[in-house]
Amino acid sequence: MLEREATGQVAYPDTTAAGDETWGEYIIDLTRTVVRFHDPTSVRGLSLIGIQTSRAAQEFVAGLGSQSLAALDEAWTTKRSARPSVLVTLGRMVAQQQMNGLSESDRQGVLKRIWAGVDSFPIALATAARAASFFVLVPVLRHIASSDGDPSVGAAVGRAVAELQAKLDAMPPASGLSDWLRALCLSAQGTRSIACTSLSGSLTSARGQITANQPGPARDTLTAFAAQVDAGFQQGVWSDGEHRLLAANARYLGFRLGPAIFLHGSGGTANPPTLALSTLAPAGTTAKYQDSPALAFASGNPWLAVGTWTSPRGLGSGTLSALGAAQVWLGLKNSDDIGTNFDLRVEAYKNGTLVTAGQTLCIQGITRNADLAKAVTVAFPALTATTFDGVTDVLSLKVLTRIGTTAGGAACGGHSTAVGLRLYFDAVSRNAQFAATF
Fold it and tell me: What is the secondary structure of 81-136 as a DSSP string?
């Protein structure tokens, strides 16, 4: 009967008697009755219309596992109004995999079906993600929550993000990402197939490195994985959503393995024109250096920039909750400045907006000899949690200096001017860095 109702095989008069239940009420009652029988042959009717009326209907259809897929596919194809309910039912199906016998190959197909709704049915996607604990969808859902014009959609999806983020934080690094990569790569051809094979190999390597207790190499592998996805997105291999799912998760998982971000330079040893941040540790033996302009206590003793190190887009992924102290090595541009004391300030930015800043005052004992460069740390205060999307957001670190002062702003002794301060970085022995907790 429910199947006949769903396919329009039953004709009704245009009017009914006063007090009769509406058609919608009738379908709800009919669905409730059908579900009570637990009859697998009712799956088509329930998929076409019943799952739109109750969670019980969704759970029953999901509990049938692979037996339900054809009927759910029919509902998706023929009834657009049923698509949100189909997505949620598919999520419940994955959640019941241990009980419904869903095969691994069918599970991949279910994930791909769910992904088909990512752009059109955000609330249903969020509900499916919560039902099945799809924590790797957090970067995608976070983007939806922050960009959707409907506040009610943003709020609903945001609640899912909050719930799933806690699960993502608790899971082993790289857990779940391989499943979604396999789902996205089903039936891949040409360039996409080649990319899928390469990325799958990278995840396999990362898992092996994690198992072998090699967090550094595993992090580097995940960083390279994310960079490859970035390149594929630029080439049209991956959609925006796929890019966020794969690259942002890889970067977030990488930070779970190690929080260090290093200062790098390219284009020369002295004041290299390109200053960058990277999760890759320096490998060279010759330190690069960056010089400040001339400094003077007079005229307000202003902070002057030594340099700004900028990450590639998407370096940070997740919610930045803390920054560990920045460690750098300092020297003098000119030996005449021996005896000068310096202040050092380090500022962290997201997309050009200040996130936090720390400073160390009255640094003494700095020399001209590069081999005797002074190691200095600058601690950051507590910061307001800041979200990085792992795809487009940019993290940058700006280092500034001035003549050394006391906490009250008075000169702390030594010379009142200096030719400049030199900062050493980007070498094994001068691996200037800070830590980021995402």
Answer: GGHHHHHHHHHHHHHTHHHH---HHHHHHHHHHHHTTTTT-HHHHHHHHHHHT-GG
State whether 236 and 382 are in the same domain. Answer: no
203, 231, 257 - which closes a domain: 257
* DSSP, residue by residue, 360-381: EEEE----S-GGGPEEEEEPPP
Q: Which two tokens stand for residue 365?
A: 């004992």
Q: Are residues 253 and 301 in the same domain?
A: no
Which residues are bridge partners to 321 per DSSP?
none
Report the pLDDT value the prediction gives residue 19, as an integer from 0 to 100. Answer: 60
Q: What angle do CA 106, 107, 109 make, to 5 degrees?
A: 65
Torsional sign, CA 90, 94, 99, 104: positive
- The residue whose two tokens read 């999307």 is 389
Q: 289 and 187, same structural domain?
A: no
Q: Can you give the C-alpha Rg of the chain in angstroms?
A: 29
> Structural domain tally of the chain?
2
Q: What angle do CA 95, 110, 160 make, to 5 degrees?
A: 50
Provide the token pair at 198. 């390469």
Residues 232, 287 share a domain? no
Per the structure block, which two tokens stand in for 161?
A: 């993000």
What's the pLDDT at 20? 63
Contact 183, 108 (CB under 8 A): yes
Hey, which residues does 421 pair with through a beta bridge? 332
Q: What does the block give as tokens for 387? A: 């979200």
* Contact by Cβ (8 Å): 399, 328: yes
Specify the pLDDT at position 124.
98
pLDDT at 355: 98
Question: Would you say 263 and 271 are in contact if contact means Cβ atoms under 8 Å apart?
Answer: no
Whether 198 and 252 map to the same domain: the answer is yes
Question: What is the Cα 88 distance to its own chain's centre?
Answer: 23
**Same domain? 195 vs 344:** no
Q: Position of tokens 């030996």? A: 335
Question: Which pLDDT score, from 0 to 100, does residue 148 have?
Answer: 83
Alpha helices in 38-68 (DSSP H): 43-48, 55-63
List 262's β-bridge partners, or say none. 278, 433
What averages of pLDDT result for each successive group of 10 residues across the chain (438 residues)? Answer: 73 55 83 93 95 97 97 96 97 94 95 96 98 96 92 95 91 83 97 98 96 94 96 97 97 92 98 98 97 96 99 94 98 97 99 98 98 98 96 98 98 98 99 96
Please indicate, yes or no, if residue 352 is contained in any of the structural domains: yes
Which structural domain range is residue 278 located in? 260-437
**201 shares a domain with 307:** no
